[in-house]
Amino acid sequence: MSTEDRDWLVKGARVAALTISSGKPASFQVRTVARFTETQVILDDDGRWRLKDLRPVGDSNRSEWATYRHELAPLDDPLVVTVRVAARLRNLGRVVEPWLGGGRVYTDVAGGLELLDQVAQAVAETRARVAALEPSGGGAGRA
């Protein structure tokens, strides 16, 4: 995360508090910038982040072998968008899986078509949520 371009880091901005772990998908929480001190960004959850490197206060992460790191980033940061897309796709899987699992057998055409309509609707809703993450779609600031 570049710390040079910080136009996004203003009071009231919604930001991503990222956790990046080796071997796991990155995750984040959406937070709001509450205020600034001379050296820190303070979020709505009272989390404090160093202005110089956008890392949490007290998180030295000194070891080169550390398995995780925390960063503050704008919601339209490419990594944050990637995490959000992955979350929406995982959610689609959770929605659709019960319809297809459980040993159900759809022997009639009407039942099979109804199930396919439900899956198509869930895919369409997920597609719209993923498309809204594009900056041109105006939805990059949504959680």
List its salient traits.
2 domains, five-stranded antiparallel β-sheet, alpha+beta, disordered C terminus, 2 helices, 5 strands
Rg from C-alpha positions? 20 Å
| Count of all domains | 2
Strand order of the largest sheet: 4-3-2-1-5
User: Could you say which overall geometry the principal axes of the C-alpha atoms support?
Assistant: elongated
> What fraction, in percent, of the residue positions are helical?
25-40%
Mean pLDDT: 82
Structural class by SSE content: alpha+beta
Q: Major sheet: size, sense and barrel closure?
A: 5 strands, antiparallel
How many DSSP helices? 2
The secondary-structure element order is: EEEEEHH
Notes on the structure:
By secondary structure, the protein is α+β, with helices and mostly antiparallel strands. It folds into two domains: 14-74, no CATH class; 80-137. The protein is 32% helix and 22% strand. It has two helices and five strands. The protein has helices spanning 78-100, 109-131; strands spanning 14-21, 27-36, 40-43, 48-50, 68-74. The chain has a five-stranded antiparallel β-sheet with strand order 4-3-2-1-5, with no helix packed on it. It is elongated, with a radius of gyration of 20 Å.
